[in-house]
Design brief:
Its EC number is 3.1.2.4. The protein is built from 17 helices and 8 strands. It is α/β, with parallel strands linked by helices. It has a 6-stranded mixed sheet with strand order 1-2-3-4-6-8, with helices on both faces. A two-stranded parallel ribbon has the order 5-7. Helix 1 links the parallel strand 2 and strand 3. The two termini are 23 Å apart.
Length: 350
């Protein structure tokens, strides 16, 4: 069994036949680094083959959430550096293989998607087979805000929500709650935040089914599902510009709020995201979707907007990105197609 060091970024141990994985960077809301991905993958391989392990439980240290996403500052430095994003591409390569490994995991993979669960955190959670959300869950695929494209297998789920809720989530990048996550297919069960410790205890003592039976409650109604009429109508446009126009025509309220949010996002990232979600709807498997996402991520690593988006949000924190192209009208079909070109090294699964 892999050793446990309390100072490590991933804590691993086993209790009564349950493998426990805790993401342990609470000050960074457990943002995923490449070494963390490389620590989790072999543990899951071991546990899949270990007859003494009957289930896996994954959570995040601290009170703020499971995981805020990938360590984007590291990606920023990689994409600005002399290797032109080599380290970023290597991180995504291994991260997406881990996402596929979670998707293939045959034993119960219980993940506590409490608090903030965004980007790469969604990838650690959404492919599991027992996905728990709570009253504090704040889930999002906010990539377009940093000139990036939803990844970690997220476009598989975004393309398969009821109606066009997934496009709304992808193009706004706005967070949604536990009730929405269940309605959209991103989660399975709703457990009150205050019951999580007891829930974990029962998983270890009595098994996953007993814990779900004891603590899962009716989720609150999905606010997004209740707004599906205008969302389906407005997001059916051919282009992001058409979608924006429809949202603005809809009048005051949540549609206008969505339009205002989308208008702040990277025009190229929005255009690629719309195409990526539509293409993902036609792809059969998680692996197929991850291969496509590896191409779009590699495209983002070459782009101006990914570095500029991280600079504006996280490095300089001026919240004033200078996007290029600077408008949706300036984005060409060729610009979008370039993101779907084969990667230098295509993503493969062993």
């Amino acid at each position: 069994m892999h050793s446990v060091d309390e100072n490590e970024d991933v804590l691993v141990n086993a209790q009564q036949g349950v493998g426990l994985i805790t993401l342990n960077r609470p000050k960074a809301i457990n943002s995923l680094t490449h070494p963390m991905v490389n620590a989790i993958a072999p543990v899951l391989t071991d546990w899949a083959a270990d007859d003494d392990i009957r289930a896996v439980l994954v959570d995040g240290a601290g009170e703020r959430g499971l995981c805020a996403g990938g360590d984007i500052v590291a990606l920023y430095h990689s994409c600005r550096g002399p290797n032109q994003g080599k380290e970023a591409r290597e991180f995504w390569y291994d991260e997406y293989r881990l996402n596929a490994q979670i998707g293939r995991f045959t034993k119960p993979y219980v993940v506590l998607m409490d608090g903030i669960v965004m980007g790469g955190g969604v990838g650690i959670g959404v492919h599991g087979n027992v996905r728990i959300v709570t009253d504090t869950t704040k889930m999002a695929m906010p990539e377009v805000g940093i000139g990036f494209i939803p990844d970690v297998g997220g476009t598989l789920y975004l393309s398969r929500t009821p109606g066009l809720l997934g496009l709304h989530a992808a193009l706004t990048g706005a967070p949604f709650g536990g009730g929405d996550a269940i309605a959209m297919g991103f989660a399975d069960h709703y457990v009150p935040h205050d019951a999580l410790e007891d829930f974990k205890r029962i998983v270890i003592a009595d098994g996953v089914d007993a814990a779900v039976a004891a603590y899962a409650t009716e989720p609150p109604p999905s606010q997004l599902l209740a707004q599906r009429d205008w969302i389906d109508q407005c997001y059916s446009g051919d282009t992001v510009a058409d979608i924006l126009a429809a949202l603005r025509d809809h009048g005051e309220g949540p549609a206008k709020d969505a339009a205002d949010l989308i208008a702040t996002r990277s025009p190229i990232a929005l255009s690629v995201t719309l195409e990526a979600v539509r293409r993902a709807a036609k792809l059969a498997t998680l692996e197929d979707v991850l291969r496509q996402e590896y191409r779009t991520s590699s495209g983002a690593a070459r782009s101006h907007d990914f570095v500029e988006g991280i600079r504006a949000q996280v490095v300089d924190k001026d919240r004033n990105p200078k996007w290029s192209p600077d408008s949706l009208a300036a984005v060409t079909t060729a610009d979008v197609e370039a993101y779907f070109a084969p990667a230098d090294r295509e993503l493969e699964f062993s």
